[in-house]
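Chain A, query sequence.
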Amino acid sequence: MAKCSKEPVVTIGIDLAKNSVHVYGVDAQGRQVLSKKVTRGS
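Chain A, predicted structure.
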């Protein structure tokens, strides 16, 4: 579930949940260039 690009990231967002963390980034035009979801192992 990861998507990466070589475009420069100008804004980063972090969504914290009980069992996962979702990090995403957008470029200067507002297009999503980074998306990574990490879940907690038990």
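The chain has one domain: 3-39. The mean pLDDT is 86.
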